[in-house]
Amino acid sequence: MPHRTTNIAGLSPILLTHLHPLALLTSYFLQFPSLVASPPSTLFSSVFPLTMIQVAYAVLCLDNAALPHGHSTSTTEKKSKSGSLRPKKADSASSGGIAGHILPISLSLLLTTTLFTSLITILLFLFGAPFTTHHSHTILTATHISLLIAFPLIYVHKLDSQKWSEILSFTLPLDEVFAATVGGMIGSWCGAVPIPLDWDEPWQKWPCTILTGAYLGYVVGKFMGMYVVKGKKLVF
């Protein structure tokens, strides 16, 4: 059987996985002035576009993605030379078209917006987010970060306990999905650096720099995972 080079939309996953970061950054920076002016309303209104971008990325690029060292979600798969991930044979979800993706997407979004948003909100508080004020800012920021770094992981690895043990211990071999997650986490942490600096710039307020760091770190991590550190493990 010939290798499948298109997805359910008839498009190349290799092309789309490279357009994905462009869509993310374009969407974010177009609404950045509004984010600085009114963080809560902008964060709320941009959750849906971000969700649609991530869902499209998951369905069109990550469906049945072949992960390194045998971590795969289909029976027969092939890695493309460019670092993008393509299945050789579609599974039942792919063969079912859009309808076959509704359940996994819905469950992944549910876990992302409940469990992981709660966890990231707690982490933001622990790392210095305002505890008595700006609650909507923090929760919506956690939602954005969860959709960025957690949703693709959940969609690819589902509830595989072994893989999540490796993810949480940072021993999972890096690929475009896991490296993007690590990059988003590092970017969020680095984004806190400008906040206490005495520059008196409007974009320094919470959570503009945190979210900017998350988006930039996610994109850098994704490309690192595709071309630089693919198959390697984090070394502490």
From TrEMBL:
Q: Which organism is it from?
A: Terfezia boudieri ATCC MYA-4762
Question: Residues annotated as region Disordered?
Answer: 70-95
Q: Might you report a single GO cellular component term? A: endoplasmic reticulum membrane
UniProt keywords, alphabetically: Endoplasmic reticulum, GPI-anchor biosynthesis, Membrane, Transmembrane, Transmembrane helix
Bilayer topology term: Multi-pass membrane protein
Recorded metabolic or biological pathway in which this protein acts: Glycolipid biosynthesis; glycosylphosphatidylinositol-anchor biosynthesis
Q: What is this protein called?
A: Glycosylphosphatidylinositol anchor biosynthesis protein 11
> Where can this protein be found?
Endoplasmic reticulum membrane
Give the residue spans that cross the bilayer. Answer: 7-30, 42-62, 102-127, 139-156, 177-197, 209-229
Q: Where does the source fall among the domains of life?
A: Eukaryota
Show the coiled coil region(s).
Answer: none
Kindly indicate whether the keyword Membrane belongs to this entry.
yes
Q: What's an example Gene Ontology biological process for this entry? A: GPI anchor biosynthetic process
InterPro entries the record matches: GPI_biosynthesis_protein_Pig-F (IPR009580)
